[in-house]
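User: Reviewer 2 asked us to show a designed sequence for the structure in our supplementary figure. I'm pasting the structure tokens here. Could you produce the per-position amino acids so we can include them in the response letter?
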């Protein structure tokens, strides 16, 4: 009996030690998580000064939410941005566009019932040579500008390159990134001459200036569509807070760009090489054909050459 009592006592002491270790580990992990949260990239040493002049690094935001209703029934069981474009999921292409531009801090904004699939697919971004990939969730369908507004804490004082998750380009945007870094605050958009401008936001150009952007006009004032790649300073979030829902019940990115135009702080470049979205069956087929034929995100040429090529 004394031996049994001693064994019970030893087991109890061992159990107490194990519980203590679990508690200590839990506290440590919670403290470590707390440190990660408070050190999340909000404000940084390199940002923009009080006049809005852009300094330091640029962060990237991929907007991959929405329901993809125009691709129903394909999107009944998955997010549109997880559909294949040739040999890769669609979302790989915009992420690679940012990485090719030298951007290493990237936030993915998604939503819907399949948001967890992005984490399983992308993880921490190792396939792109990234050390970390950030995620946030958009509830409902509030529009592109609402989705971008979720990036405010991530962006802090840094400038951003924002890309829609279904936009794919032949070349890269390194020239535009460097040009925007040299710009004194404001915004920059990329344009592409297209045959079906009524499907996009369309820029009205006078000389070297964009004087207005109209969303999906029935009678476009030009054939220059606004590509789903935008460059913004930190004032974009103040502008988003000023927005009112459009007739579609969404916060429109076109209205954000028009705020910058009103301030005379929006510049543009014409994108070199082909560009397509992949939000309809027709454009999804075109995207697959273009990538299969020529490849995408090529590094041998940059945007900003100014050549006005019609999208194929």
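Assistant: Here is a per-position design you can include in the supplement:
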């Amino acid at each position: 009996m004394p031996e049994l009592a001693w064994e019970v006592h030893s087991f109890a002491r061992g159990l107490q030690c194990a519980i203590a270790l679990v508690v200590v580990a839990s506290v440590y992990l919670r403290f470590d998580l707390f440190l990660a949260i408070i050190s999340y990239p909000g404000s940084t040493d390199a940002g923009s000064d009080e006049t809005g002049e852009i300094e330091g690094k640029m962060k990237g935001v991929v907007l991959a939410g929405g329901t993809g209703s125009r691709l129903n029934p394909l999107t009944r069981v998955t997010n549109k941005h997880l559909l294949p474009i040739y040999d890769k999921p669609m979302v790989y292409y915009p992420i690679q566009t940012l990485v090719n531009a030298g951007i290493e801090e990237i936030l993915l904004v998604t939503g819907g019932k399949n948001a967890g699939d992005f984490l399983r697919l992308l993880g921490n971004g190792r396939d792109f040579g990234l050390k970390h990939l950030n995620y946030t969730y958009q509830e409902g369908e509030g529009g592109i500008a609402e989705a971008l507004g979720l990036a405010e804490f991530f962006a802090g004082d840094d400038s951003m390159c924002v890309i829609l998750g279904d936009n794919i380009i032949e070349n890269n945007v390194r020239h535009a990134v460097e040009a925007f870094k040299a710009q004194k605050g404001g915004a920059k958009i990329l344009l592409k001459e297209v045959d079906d401008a009524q499907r996009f936001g369309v820029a009205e150009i006078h000389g070297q200036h964009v004087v207005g952007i109209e969303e999906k006009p029935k009678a476009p004032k030009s054939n220059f569509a606004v590509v789903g790649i935008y460059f913004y300073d930190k004032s974009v979030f103040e502008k988003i807070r000023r927005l009112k829902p459009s007739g579609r019940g969404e916060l429109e990115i076109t209205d954000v760009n028009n705020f910058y135009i009103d301030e005379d702080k929006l510049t543009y470049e014409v994108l070199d090489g082909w560009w397509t979205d992949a939000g309809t069956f027709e454009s999804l087929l075109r995207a697959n054909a273009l990538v299969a034929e020529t490849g995408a995100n090529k590094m041998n040429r940059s945007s900003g050459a100014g050549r006005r090529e019609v999208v194929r």
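For the response letter, you might also mention the following. The first helix runs from residue 2 to 38. The longest strand covers residues 224-232.
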